[in-house]
Design a protein that fits this description.
The protein has 171 residues and is an alpha+beta fold. It is built from two helices and eleven strands, in the order αβββββββββββα.
C-alpha cells in the first residue's frame, strides 16, 4: 500500500498518469471522456473557509439602587471577535482524476477542475484549494492517509501535469 503511493507520486513526477487504481463498482460521478481516476479517499471531509460570527455576550455588570425606581448600571453588552477558519460541511468520497478533484457527500457534490485553481495549500491531513473567482472561498479536504502529505502531493502533481497539458500547443 505504501509502495503503491510512492509509485503513483513517482509516475506523476515523471509526467505519466498512473493507472494502478482498479475501481470496483460504479462511481457517483460522471467522468469526462478519457478522464482517468488516479486515487480515491473513501472517508474524506469537505470544509469551507468561513467567518464565524460570535454571539453577543449578555449584559455583564452590577446594578446599584440610587433611589426607589432608579438604578445605576455598570458594565455593558459585549461582542466577542469574529473568527475565520475552516468549517466542516460534509463527509464523503474524494476522487482525484487527471483533470479534477471530485467530491460526493450526503449534502454536497462538486467538480473542481485543476485548470480553474489559483492556489493549493497543504494542511496536516489534506489540502485546501481556491478557484479563480473573486468571491471564491477556500475549500479544504481532509483525507486520512498513512502518509499525511500524500493527498497534497497528489493534488500538487496532478495540477502541475494539467497545467503542462493545457500549455502545450495543439497539433
Amino acid at each position: 500500500d505504501r509502495i503503491a503511493r510512492c509509485c503513483v507520486i513517482r509516475d506523476l513526477q515523471e509526467g505519466k498518469i498512473p493507472d494502478r487504481l482498479q475501481v470496483a463498482g460504479d462511481l457517483p460521478f460522471v467522468l469526462e471522456a478519457t478522464e482517468q481516476v488516479v486515487w480515491m479517499f473513501s472517508n474524506a471531509d469537505y470544509l469551507e473557509d468561513r467567518i464565524v460570527h460570535a454571539p453577543v455576550r449578555p449584559y455583564a455588570g452590577i446594578s446599584v439602587r440610587v433611589i426607589s425606581g432608579l438604578y445605576l448600571h455598570t458594565g455593558g453588552l459585549g461582542r466577542l471577535p469574529d473568527q475565520e477558519g475552516f468549517v466542516p460541511i460534509d463527509s464523503g468520497l474524494l476522487v482525484l482524476t487527471d483533470r479534477a478533484i471530485l467530491f460526493h457527500g450526503a449534502h454536497k457534490s462538486m467538480r473542481l477542475k485543476f485548470r480553474d485553481l489559483v492556489s493549493i495549500d497543504r494542511y496536516d491531513c489534506g489540502f485546501a484549494v481556491c478557484k479563480g473567482a473573486q468571491s471564491a472561498r477556500n475549500q479544504g479536504f481532509h483525507a486520512q492517509d498513512v502518509f499525511p502529505g500524500f493527498p497534497y502531493l497528489l493534488v500538487k502533481e496532478l495540477s502541475r501535469l494539467a497545467a503542462q497539458s493545457t500549455a502545450r500547443p495543439h497539433s
